[in-house]
Amino acid sequence: MPAPVISVVIPFYAEGATLAEFLSSVTTALDKSGWSYELVLIDDGSPDNTWTTIMGAAARYPAIRALRLSRNFGKELALCAGLERARGDAVIVMDGDGQHPPALLPDVLHLWQTTGVDIVEAVKTKRGPESLSGKLSALLFYIILNKLSGFDLKGASDFKLMNRKAVNAWLEMHERNVFFRGMTVWMGFTTVRLPFEVAPRSAGKSSWSYLKRLRLAVTGLTAFSSFPLQLVTLAGAVFFVFAVLLGAQILLELIIGSALMISLGIVGEYLARIYEEVKGRPRYVVTESIESANTQPLPAADATRPITGP
Question: Is residue 133 included in any domain, yes or no?
Answer without folding.
Answer: yes
